[in-house]
Amino acid sequence: FAKLRAGLSRSSEKLGDNLSSVFTKSKLDDAMLEEIEEALIAADLGPAMAARVSAKLAAEKYDKAVTEAEVRQVVADEIEKVLRPVAKPLEVVAFPRPQTVLVVGVNGSGKTTTIAKLAHLFQEQDYRVMLAAGDTFRAAAIEQLQVWGGRIGAPVISSKVGADAAGLAYESLEKARSGGFDALIIDTAGRLQNKQGLMDELAKVKRVLSKLMLSAPHDVVLVLDATTGQNALNQIEVFREVAGVTGLVMTKLDGTARGGVLVAAAERFKLPIHAVGVGETIDDLRPFDPKAFAEALAG
Ligand code: GDP
Description:
Blueprint: H1 2-7, H2 9-20, H3 30-42, H4 47-61, H5 68-83, E1 99-104, H6 111-124, E2 129-132, H7 139-152, E3 156-157, H8 165-178, E4 183-187, H9 195-212, E5 219-225, H10 231-243, E6 247-251, H11 261-269, E7 273-277, E8 285-287, H12 290-298
Parallel strand pairs: 1-4, 1-5, 2-3, 2-4, 5-6, 6-7
Antiparallel strand pairs: 7-8
Helix pairs in contact: 3-4, 4-5, 5-12, 6-7, 8-9
The structure holds guanosine-5'-diphosphate (GDP).
């Protein structure tokens, strides 16, 4: 929790800076409510959240004295209300085996790192995890996953650069199944420049996996980079369409003032949020805790 709080400190500070300039008057009036709404929108929390906080404050405190701490408490409560229903840490379920997790997202979002962190999280629960270097387009991505696999002691199925990603996915599921692995985590390409190409590739990967195992892939996890702010919302839209996303992980919350965008994403898409990344090391993935997140963000 300390790490999450530290990670979100920039987002929280930004919200604080935006809010403190509001408290120039002693009593809550329309102008102040409007400024509070603007502060929340500037902190990437989204217009719906801003409107709700404003309505709640108006109902409780109109024409009365109100402090920044009170406003922050209302914000924290409202954030938690939005996040609680979507908080769903990614778990290895009892059946079927292996649980197949397809990880999607644009290049640079933190996919490879998140895969390693997730695998590590599963390993800590005594599950055996296999990785597949399904971003066959980028040599660096294949190498990086191999390095991570070596570090955490998870086998990595890979192919030559340019090989068919679906073929590799098929092979990895076969191996994970015959080897009795509990989970298989598959990396994918993230070339959003060629949306149709990416859509075709991901559809094919999913098709071959389900050929081998009807329920696979069990999870399609979209990795989002918090530093891209509102852009994360567009990425959700696109990847929902091209990959049928079932849940989200947001990375780099430690290096940005834009953590509020996760709340806007929850509000708009209502997709499960599995975990958040708060650093570059293997332990820097936190199962998503709505209360801790709301408190860290609202300060
Ligand atoms: P990919 O291209 O999507 O596979 O992205 P990578 O996993 O290679 O990550 C891109 C960069 O982001 C690397 O330098 C990672 O160390 C860094 N990164 C990933 N997750 C986090 C995070 O939660 N916090 C920080 N600060 N950096 C991260």
